[in-house]
Amino acid sequence: MSEILRDLSSDISLLSLNTATVRQQWNLAEAIEGCVRHNIGSITPWRDQVAECGLDEAAKRIRNAGLTVTSLCRGGWFPAADREGRQTAIDDNLRAIDEAVTLDAACLVMVVGALPKGSKDIEDARSQVFDGMTAIMDHARASNMPLAIEPLHPMYAADRACVNTMKQALDLCDELGDGIGVVADVYHIWWDPELAGQIARAGNDDRLLVYHVCDWLVPTNDLFLDRGMMGDGIIDLKSIRAMVESAGYPGSCEVEIFSQDWWKRDPDEVLRICIERHQTVV
Ligand code: ZN
Question: Is the pTM of this model over 0.90?
Answer without folding.
Answer: yes
